[in-house]
Amino acid sequence: KDVCLMLLGLGLVACGLMGAFLQPSGADGYIEFVQMAFIMSGAALTIIASIRITESALKRRDAKKGE
């Protein structure tokens, strides 16, 4: 579940970056704002997912230690 979140976040970042590279530099700022929103939300999703993956891995490790 968390891995899917992470992939989704990376996909959003990739979409935003692709749009930034493909768009002509003279375009209005609105499009750039949308791209920044894509990149930021994607980065946030990726960070949250990676934190949750790390936490669940640590919990599993601690559970093994406790046995």
Overview of this structure, please?
With about 70 residues, the protein is mainly alpha-helical. It has one domain (about 1-65). Helix content is about 90%, strand content about 0%. The chain contains 2 helices and no strands. Helix 1 runs antiparallel to helix 2. The radius of gyration is 17 Å and the shape is rod-shaped.
Keywords:
mainly alpha, 67 residues, 88% helix
Compile the SSE list and pairings:
Blueprint: H1 2-22, H2 29-66
Helix pairs in contact: 1-2
What's the helical proportion of residues? over 70%
Q: What kind of sheet is the major sheet?
A: none
Radius of gyration: 17 Å
Number of helices: 2
Distance between the termini: 26 Å
What number of structural domains do the residues give? Answer: 1
Put the structure in a nutshell:
The protein is mainly alpha-helical. It is built from two helices and no strands.
